[in-house]
Amino acid sequence: MTPAVLWVVLMTAGISLGQSPVDSSSNLELISAEFSLADGPAWDGGWAMYIPDVKGQKLHRYVPKTRTMQVLMPNAGRISASFFSHGRLYVSDNGNSRIARLQGKKLVAVFEHEKDAKQAIRPNDLVVDKHGGIYYTLSRQGQVNYIAPGVQDSKIVVEGIKTPNGIILSPDGKTLYISSFAPKKIWAYPIKDEAGPNGPKGASVIVGEGREFAAMDDGDAKGADGMAMDRAGNVYCAGAQHVWIWNPSGKLIGKIETPTRPINCTFGDPDMRSLYIACFGGLYKQRMIISGRAPHPTDQKDERKSRANRPSTEIPKNIEAHLDVVYAQYGDRKLLADIFVPRDKPGPLPTIVVVHGGGWLNGDKTKFRALALGLAAKGYVTAAIEYRLAGEAKFPAGIQDCNAAVRFLRANGKAFKVDPKRIGAVGGSAGGHLVGLMATGFALKELQGPGGHAYQSSKLQAAVVMAGPMQMTTGWVAERSRNQPNKSNAYKWLGKSIDHAPDLYKLAAPYQHITWESPPILFLVGELDKPQRNQPMRDKLKSIGVWTDLMFYKDGKHGCWNRLPWFTDMVRDMDAFFKVQLK
Predict the structure, then answer these.
(1) Looking at residue 2, what is its pLDDT?
(2) At what angle do helices 3-13 and 397-411 cross, to 10 degrees?
(3) How far, in Å, CA of 228 to CA of 232, rounded?
(4) Which of 422, 541, 411 lies closest to 471, judged by CA?
(5) What's the pTM?
(6) Which H or E run includes 572?
(7) Residue 237: per-residue pLDDT
(8) CA 259, CA 262: separation in Å to the nearest integer?
(9) Is the pLDDT of residue 202 over 50?
(10) What angle (nearest 5°) sits at the alpha carbon of residue 247, between those of residues 491 and 83?
């Protein structure tokens, strides 16, 4: 690689901690002004946004695809905030002194405080952790309470904080951020112990001593209100006139001015790149370059008709779930994995890294939760990983993250029953491309990065590619970067067209790095998803004696690996392949 190309690689891979995550090419958009007072919204992880109208005592639902707003509950009461997680909508039912969840079109109490006319206990804002536990603020009492999963009790975990209002958790769940409304300060509290299956006995949490994280210096007007968090760990808080944004170190990196005072905010839309802001004047939307985090999917049986063709994300009792495990770190940026370990099998076990798709621009590790669980049920340790997307960091950041995940698993084998000598990977679409590049480019230093555990190898023993492009210097990927850069995901990910950075596209192409040391690669693809796309890759692998094969699935379209009945057949075929190659 020439020095000039290496310079491009290094420049495009980094993330600037001072960079604003606001998409400057997009203006703030009014969604609806038909609220008496819109408050804490919540995205359901799929197609809809819930918005409480605290003064109008209604619960609205907005569908971005059709741009339709409906009143879901006309008599919802004074809901001051909502949060969607584990397949459920939770709300702070301020008027009824309780935390509740939506069941059909009714609110069911999770925990209800005793009502005292002298000093009403009124929950303000809330956040749900990865185990399903609920933190919520009590502004009058200067407290934060916690409801452990499966426990009908509420315990004080933070007290002595002045007018606590908004509340949010860091992506890894280790830091609790709380806004103090009147003094306009943000406080950060370490979570020392967690509830949930891997936490301490007693089904509670231990919150450490808080520290001042940031303060709003915009005059005398009060207003540190509702909060949000993006996937990079940047902290958002509604202020008197703006939504303020700080990086994980507490450095102010941006503000979003709103026409009227903002009250709360959350990320939404299918790509999670829209920040929805509830204001005194209604609901607004601002497009961002860094996306929010998708909600954790339900870990119970999902009876919704809309999920009938989706594979289950229910976590079986014989699978131990380690959610949001930090597997790599670049400065303040932590990369997370959901690791699933069979309880009933002694280690070390063959292990599979699961890499989601999304065109290098979008997506989240939770989208492949079902696949990770399906393979874990076959006896593998699985790790569904996130990686840095194009809006946050250009190529080769994403592939460096994938390789760092393999090194992490090798370095921490005993903790998760990982056999370091038997690690494979599977990915779909852009994730398939990354798995192909993991398989063939493991010896290239430019693709490794400083994510940690550099003494370990990132070499795979087997790989499954589902509809991922293997050639980047020729074919439709290259042509679109040249002729339609505005529509080219590769252009957005690599930062240039094939004509301006041919060596960069070559570095990103799995086809270019095939050697006799490449592991066996199985290609899986739907019948209607161009099964011929990777024929040159397979021909080259076979020509040098590397095992490869293609399996296609009748009537399957792009993404069929996340749909029934194809999902079942594809997991079966992956299992048959990995049983041989990771034996």
Answers:
(1) 42
(2) 80
(3) 12
(4) 541
(5) 0.94
(6) helix 566-581
(7) 98
(8) 8
(9) no
(10) 90
CATH for 21-287 is 2.120.10.30
What pLDDT digit, counting tens, does each position of 99-158 carry? 999 999 899 999 999 876 556 789 999 999 999 999 999 999 999 999 998 888 899 999
Enter the tokens of residue 420.
Answer: 């370091």
Residues β-bridged to residue 32: 283
Domain ranges of the chain: 21-287, 315-470+520-581, 472-508
Q: Which two tokens stand for residue 441?
A: 């480019």
- The CATH code for residues 315-470+520-581 is 3.40.50.1820
Locus of tokens 């919704």:
304
The average confidence (pLDDT) of the chain is 92
**Cβ contacts of 201 within 8 Å, gap of 6 or more:** none
107: nearest Cα among 138, 77, 127, 136 = 77
Q: Which residues contact 339 (CB under 8 A, 6 or more apart)?
A: 321, 322, 325, 381, 382, 383, 416
Q: Do the beta carbons of residue 525 and residue 554 sit within 8 Å?
A: no
Residues in the chain, total: 583
CB neighbours of 540 closer than 8 A, spacing ≥ 6? 511, 514
Q: CB under 8 Å to 551, separation ≥6 — which residues?
A: 522, 523, 524, 525, 573
Per residue in 376-389, pLDDT (tens digit) is: 999 999 999 999 99
pLDDT confidence of residue 6:
37
Amino acid identity, position 310: R
Quote the crossing angle between the two packed helices 566-581 and 369-376, to the nearest 10°.
50
Q: Hey, how many other C-beta atoms are within 10 angstroms of the C-beta on 143?
A: 17
Question: In terms of Cα–Cα distance, which of 439, 443, 353, 448 is closest to 398?
Answer: 448
Looking at the predicted structure, is the pLDDT value of residue 291 above 80?
A: yes
Q: Rounded to an integer, what distance in angstroms lies between the CA atom of residue 540 and that of residue 130?
A: 44
Question: How is residue 227 annotated by DSSP?
Answer: E
Tokens read off for 435? 């798995």
Tokens 């850069």 correspond to 485
For 8-53, the pLDDT digits (tens) are: 343 334 444 568 999 999 999 999 999 999 999 999 998 999 999 9
pLDDT tens figures, 208-265: 999 999 999 988 888 899 999 999 999 999 999 999 999 999 999 999 999 999 999 9
Band (pLDDT 50/70/90 cuts) for residue 500 is very high
Distances (CA, A) of 580 to 5, 275, 448, 553: 39, 46, 28, 21
With CA atoms as reference, report the closest residue to 495 among 480, 483, 485: 485
Classify 562 as helix, strand or coil.
helix
Q: What does the pLDDT look like over 312-358, one tens digit per residue?
A: 999 999 999 999 999 999 999 999 999 999 999 998 999 999 999 99
- CA–CA distance, 556 with 534 (Å, rounded to integer): 17
Within 13 A of 321's CA, how many CA atoms are on the CB side? 22
- Strands 252-257 and 242-246 turn out to be antiparallel
Q: What is the DSSP code (8-state) at residue 288?
A: B
Q: Which residues pair with 351 in a beta bridge?
A: 381, 423
